[in-house]
Specification:
Layout lengths: L2 H28 L28 H28 L10
Helix pairs in contact: 1-2
Length: about 100
């Protein structure tokens, strides 16, 4: 397999990982987080609502963001690798 074919496969793999991560993250954010009381009866009449300090994120959203991060890092690596390969090499013509 040539360098061009390897590059196309790497870009395709990074793209697939990004799409899977974004889809998983979207599903995780759209799914409401369910939690409940299981150890004791809650106080009667009180409803727990997270205020300014609480954000609940589902496991699916966390996994999706991790997959998306891996895909974005792969794309950033491939971009840097591509530009480093295509940059003309300069020769040091100065001699001491």
């Amino acid at each position: 397999m040539g360098n061009r074919a390897k590059s196309i496969v790497a870009w395709a793999a990074a793209g697939v990982v990004i799409v899977v991560g974004a889809t998983t993250l979207a599903i995780g954010v759209a799914t409401p987080v369910a939690f409940g009381w299981f150890a004791y009866q809650p106080l009667a009449g009180d409803v727990f609502t997270p205020g300014n300090g609480g954000i609940f994120v589902s496991r699916v959203a966390i996994i999706g963001s991790a997959i998306l991060t891996v895909g974005m890092l792969a794309a950033a690596f491939l971009t840097g690798w591509h530009f480093a390969r295509t940059r003309p090499r300069s020769r040091d013509t100065e001699s001491a």
